[in-house]
Amino acid sequence: MSDIRIATAEDQILLDKEAKYCSYGDTVHYIEPPRIFSRCEGSYVWDTEDQAYLDLQMWYSAVNFGYANPRLNNALKQQIDTLPQIASQYLHKGKIELSEMIAVDAKNKFGLDGRVHFNVGGSQSIEDSLKVVRNASNGKSLMFAFEGGYHGRTLGASSITSSFRYRRRYGHFGERANFIPFPYHFRGPKGMTKEEYGSHCVQQFARLFETEYNGVWDPKTNQCEYAAFYVEPIQGTGGYVIPPMNFYRELKHVLDQHGILMVSDEIQMGFYRTGKLWSIEHFDVQPDVIVFGKALTNGLNPLGGIWAREELINPKVFPPGSTHSTFASNPLGTAVGLEMFKMTNEVDYGAMVMAKGKYFLEGLQDLQKRFPIIGDVDGLGLALRCEICGPDGFTPDKATLDFMVEEGMKGDMVVDGQKLGLILDVGGYYKNVITLAPSLEISYPEIDLGLKLLEQLLVRATQR
Questions:
Q1: Which of 346, 377, 398 is the last residue in one of the domains?
Q2: Which of the residues 191, 250, 327, 372 has an alpha carbon 20 to 30 A from that of 197?
């Protein structure tokens, strides 16, 4: 095991400047000293010392199709030479055609007519969705969301994100959401199957509508005080928690009974992360609104948006000027988004991602058998989780995972004579979960390499 790594003289000059001139408001130094990166390609990034790191989190699932993907990069380059910019209030071909692709796909899958509205990223698109559902419900400002849910850190998005620490210093935009337990089976009541626990969670939610004294329902007028339920079909920052397949179907039945919209936040799990374009597709329900971002442009351009049912977003109910962003539907972003859709339509990405995910999950399950500190592993497509626990295999152990993350960033592990680092992301309710979001283009040898590097980190963690 290596000693603490020291920043190079050149890096230290930059870090000193960062300390003086950069806001830390959007910065997290997961390790000290933090690495400064100089290039990237495929599943790898390189620091200023040209040390390679295998990245198993791909910018929080924003770079689903690999760093410096040649096809997507070329789409951006070509757009720069034709129509690199135009004000968002003016039309261009890319905006219209990308909207059509998303809307036609939703019509084919969900049987619903709808429209697409763009913005510059995930949190901003969440804000737009809040406007849509508030408007559709005659101004109701209350929302349901899940414990462990994450929807962003702008004022509106943080009000429906379950972590108080994102709101603590800033107050509330409207009202704080009513946070409902998520079927986190590994930490749920014992004696229930995953499906039984999912049904149990729905039944507990449905109890809120039994009488007026639960505070959300007026049985005399059949009116709910809440406008929508914001869901991440697979929880992201909450630890890639995968619910049972019956859960959303049963939940949607309760929502439809009481006139509550379902908003599916696909910002992390969209664009084939789980083997489907939208992760909600796995659960046989029709969402009312879909929010997307991140991998739409493979991290090359800030572009996100929403799809909503026609009744919620047509120009009569959501007229021009309802919301605006200077850079929304920018032509650079829509060009990459269009190319991403063309690329994924040429290859069966669903089958490819599910096969790679199955292979990766089997490798994690093998590690789980050999290392008792792995309490739980699970996965859907290439959204995978590995929960690090104490020797009992259950007590959350954040300290050990923090150690593993730091060791991975030292860049001193050796596999087949190659010196490498490993980039991991930390998530979960107790910050003890490795949330694995590798490139969808990752090769099987790279999956094997990732598993070998994880094994080395687990050995270091258990022998320290």
A1: 346
A2: 372
What are 115-164's pLDDT values in tens digits? Answer: 999 999 999 999 999 999 999 999 899 999 999 999 999 999 999 999 99
CA atoms of 265 and 156, how far apart (whole Å)? 14
Half-sphere exposure of 427 (CA within 13 A, CB side): 24
Residue 2 forms part of a structural domain:
no
pLDDT at residue 4 above 70? no
Domain that holds residue 421: 9-68+349-463
Q: What would the mean pLDDT of 289-315 be, rounded to a whole number?
A: 97
Same domain, 205 and 308: yes
What does the H/E/C string look like for 395-434?
Answer: CECHHHHHHHHHHHCCCCEEECCEEEEEECCEECCCCCEE
Q: Is 266 left (phi over 0), alpha (psi -120 to 50) or beta?
A: alpha
Could you list the beta-strand ranges (E) of 83-219. Answer: 114-119, 142-146, 178-180, 217-218
Residue 195, judged by CB atoms within 10 A of its CB (0-12, 13-18, 19+), counts as middle
pLDDT confidence band for 169 (50 / 70 / 90): confident
The count of structural domains within the chain is: 2
